[in-house]
Amino acid sequence: MELIGEERIAAPRDVVWAAMNDPEIIRQCIPGCQSVEKLSPTQFLATVKVGFGLFSVTFNGEIRLSNVDVPRSYTIAAEGRGGIAGFARGEADVTLVDEGLHTLLCYKADGDTGGRVAELGGMLIRTTLEKLARRFWGSFNAAVVEKAAG
């Protein structure tokens, strides 16, 4: 299921790029994120609790960066396992474009689920992912603007 979007961020591209690679900012912005640990410049471990309607699943997984073009773009891929609930995985191409004193962040993401999570149905999963994406990018935008100001 594909998600496409953009965020106009009131900060220069180098500040946005640094935030995209800062595990603490990422942890603060991912809804339900309990931890993010940076293993290398392109690999992270994360634990995220995601609510799907009436229940939630805690996913433990890995985040990997590839196709890195500093400070313009990268591909971010994540896969998490939720025990007997199943798995979730996704990948997003993220691009930064200078717009004067602002940066336009564009993303195109795709993902899927398996196991019991997949049994919830595509509409519930899509609605949940869209809501999580809006919350993440909104929080990310606010965190970057605050960092740029301070």
Structural description of this entry:
The chain is of the alpha+beta class. It has one domain (2-149): Alpha-D-Glucose-1,6-Bisphosphate, Chain A, domain 4. Helix content is 29%, strand content 51%. The chain contains 3 helices and 7 strands; from the N terminus they run βααββββββα. It has helices at residues 13-20, 23-29, 122-149, and strands spanning 2-9, 33-40, 43-52, 55-69, 73-81, 87-99, 102-114. Helix 2 packs across helix 3 (122-149).
Key descriptive features of the protein:
150 residues; alpha+beta; Alpha-D-Glucose-1,6-Bisphosphate, Chain A, domain 4; 3 helices; 7 strands; 29% helix; globular
Topology summary:
Blueprint: E1 2-9, H1 13-20, H2 23-29, E2 33-40, E3 43-52, E4 55-69, E5 73-81, E6 87-99, E7 102-114, H3 122-149
Antiparallel strand pairs: 1-7, 2-3, 3-4, 4-5, 5-6, 6-7
Brief summary of the model shown:
The chain is an alpha+beta fold and 150 residues long.
Q: Globular, elongated, flat, extended or rod-shaped: what is the shape?
A: globular
Can you tell me the CATH class?
Alpha Beta
Task: Give the neighbour order of strands across the main sheet.
Answer: 1-7-6-5-4-3-2
CATH hierarchy: architecture: 2-Layer Sandwich
What is the terminal separation in angstroms? 37 Å
Overall SS class: alpha+beta
Helix share bin: 25-40%
Number of helices: 3
Order of helices and strands: EHHEEEEEEH
Q: How many domains in all?
A: 1
Rg value: 15 Å
Give the strand tally: 7
Sketch the major β-sheet: 7 strands, antiparallel
Amount of beta strand? over 45%
Mean pLDDT: 91
CATH superfamily: START domain
Weakly predicted, low-confidence segments: none
CATH topology term:
Alpha-D-Glucose-1,6-Bisphosphate, Chain A, domain 4
